[in-house]
C-alpha cells in the first residue's frame, strides 16, 4: 500500500511525507557515508512538533531477485508508534521514491516443515506401548559435601532450644 512519496528538493535533499490513518509525518533522507558494506544507505529523519529533525529509522539498499532493480527497505521506529513501521521506497522515473508499507511476514517454522508428516494409521492401543523410561532427575546431582556446610540438623535444633531457654533470674537482696 502506497503511504507516501519522497522527492529531491532544490538543495539536493530527499524530503517527503508519509500519511496513514494514524500517522502524518514529514521525513527526510540523509545519506550515510560508511566503508561498511552492511551500513544503511540513508538515515530516516522525521520533523518533530518542535520543528527539529529526529532520527527515526534507516533504509538499506536491496536488489530485486527477479529484475535486479535497486530499492530501499527499512523501518521507522519511534516510542509514539505501537509497532515499527516497515517501509520500502521504490525509485520512479523522475528520481522520486514511492513509499510503501508492508506488514512483516512471519518466518515459517522450518523444524515443523522438516518433520515427517504423520500417516493416517491408527494410534497404538493402550497398554501395547513399551513402558516409558524414568525421567532423569533435573539439576546438578547430589552434593559430595553433605556435611561440609554447617552443623547437622539435629545439632542445629539443640542450639536453637538453648538460645530460647529463659535464663534463671538472679536473686536480689
Structure description:
By secondary structure, the chain is mainly β. Helix content is 10%, strand content 33%. The chain is built from 2 helices and 8 strands. An 8-stranded antiparallel beta barrel has the order 1-2-3-4-5-6-7-8.
Q: From N to C, what is the helix and strand string?
A: EEEEEEEEHH
Number-wise, the strands total 8
Q: Specify the number of helices.
A: 2
Helical residues, percent: under 10%
Instruction: Report, as a whole number of angstroms, the end-to-end distance.
Output: 100 Å
Low-confidence stretches: none
Strand count, sense and barrel status of the largest sheet are: 8 strands, antiparallel, barrel
Oligomer state equals single chain
Structural class, by secondary structure, is: mainly beta
Strand line-up of the largest beta sheet: 1-2-3-4-5-6-7-8
Computed CA radius of gyration, to the nearest angstrom: 34 Å
Shape type: flat
Fraction in beta strands: 25-35%
Average pLDDT figure: 80
Gist?
The protein is mainly beta. The chain contains two helices and eight strands.
What's the arrangement of secondary structure elements?
Elements lengths: L1 E7 L5 E6 L4 E8 L10 E6 L5 E11 L6 E7 L8 E7 L5 E5 L8 H5 L38 H12 L9
Antiparallel strand pairs: 1-2, 1-8, 2-3, 3-4, 4-5, 5-6, 6-7, 7-8
Amino acid at each position: 500500500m502506497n503511504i507516501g512519496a519522497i522527492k529531491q528538493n532544490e538543495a539536493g535533499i530527499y524530503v517527503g511525507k508519509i500519511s496513514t490513518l494514524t500517522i502524518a509525518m514529514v521525513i527526510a533522507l540523509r545519506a550515510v557515508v560508511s566503508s561498511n558494506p552492511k551500513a544503511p544507505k540513508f538515515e530516516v529523519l522525521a520533523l518533530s512538533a518542535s520543528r527539529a529533525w529526529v532520527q527515526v529509522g534507516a533504509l538499506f539498499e536491496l536488489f530485486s531477485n527477479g529484475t535486479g532493480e535497486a530499492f530501499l527497505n527499512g523501518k521507522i521506529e519511534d516510542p509514539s508508534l505501537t509497532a515499527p513501521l516497515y517501509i520500502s521506497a521504490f525509485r520512479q522515473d523522475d528520481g522520486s521514491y514511492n513509499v510503501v508499507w508492508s506488514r512483516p511476514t512471519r518466518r515459517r517454522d522450518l523444524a515443523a516443515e522438516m518433520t515427517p508428516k504423520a500417516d493416517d494409521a491408527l494410534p497404538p492401543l493402550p497398554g501395547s506401548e513399551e513402558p516409558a523410561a524414568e525421567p532423569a532427575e533435573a539439576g546438578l546431582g547430589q552434593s559430595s559435601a553433605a556435611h561440609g556446610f554447617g552443623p547437622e540438623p539435629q545439632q542445629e535444633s539443640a542450639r536453637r532450644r538453648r538460645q530460647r531457654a529463659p535464663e534463671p533470674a538472679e536473686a536480689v537482696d
